[in-house]
Amino acid sequence: MEQQKQRVIQEYVPGKQLTLCHVIANPDPILYSKLGLETGNAIGILTLTPTETAIIAADVATKAASVGIGYLDRFTGSLVITGEVSAVEMALSAVNAFLQEKLQFSIASLTRS
After folding, report:
1. pTM for the structure as a whole
2. Cβ-contact 46, 4 below 8 angstroms
C-alpha cells in the first residue's frame, strides 16, 4: 500500500499586518539548539505580511535595541531576534510602533511567555 504524501498549503492574509509579536523569556537551552541560535536570555518572534516587511522589521529592531538576528526570511515574513529580555521587548515594541505609525500596519499585541 502506498503512503500518501502530505501537502502544505500556505495562505497569506492580504494587507499590511503584523500577525505575531511574541517574546519567549528565558527559554530552555534546548530551544536554542533546535533553532540553531546562539544562547541568550530571550527570543523574539515576528510574522509579517507582506513578507518582505521582515527586512524592515529587522532593521528597526536592531537599531532600537542591542539584539541579534537569529532568523530572517523575506519569503515567509518570519523574523526571530535574540538578546536580553528587556532588549528583545524594546525591539519588538519599536517594530510595532514603526509599522503602525509610519506604514499604517495592523499590529499585534506584544505577548510574552
Report:
1. 0.85
2. no
Per-residue pLDDT of the chain (113 residues; tens, 9 = 90+): 567 777 766 555 567 888 899 999 999 999 999 999 988 899 999 999 999 999 999 999 999 999 999 999 999 999 999 999 999 999 999 999 999 999 999 988 999 99
Position 9, amino acid:
I
Indicate the burial class of 67 (C-beta count within 10 angstroms; 0-12, 13-18, 19 or more): buried
DSSP calls for the chain: -PPPPP-------SSSEEEEEEEEES--HHHHHHHT----SEEEEEEEESTTHHHHHHHHHHHHSS-EEEEEETTTTEEEEEE-HHHHHHHHHHHHHHHHHHH--B----EE-
- Please give the grid coordinates belonging to residue 63: 537599531
Instruction: In whole angstroms, give the CA distance from residue 96 to residue 4.
Output: 42
